[in-house]
Amino acid sequence: MSNTPANKFQDGALRVTVWRNTSDKGTFYTATPSRGYKSGDDAWKETDSLNESDLLDMAELLREAKAWIKMQKRADAKARKEQAAAA
Asked: How many helices (H) and strands (E) does the chain have?
């Protein structure tokens, strides 16, 4: 994973962070779902554990992330074609 997220999708305490990764096979994307909460000392923390009431909202965030990744992969492919044509 890179140190900077490629994108974030958030709804209240729920978040999906999308990461752009590169390997010898090219660029690929991963997504990390999380839920923020305040701990006993009032510090904000994150967990990947979801409540029942979080599930549909998280599903929608994941759907948004999937659509964004799909668009980004198309843009990546177009950029590769343009680079190959310029070379």
From this structure: 1, 4
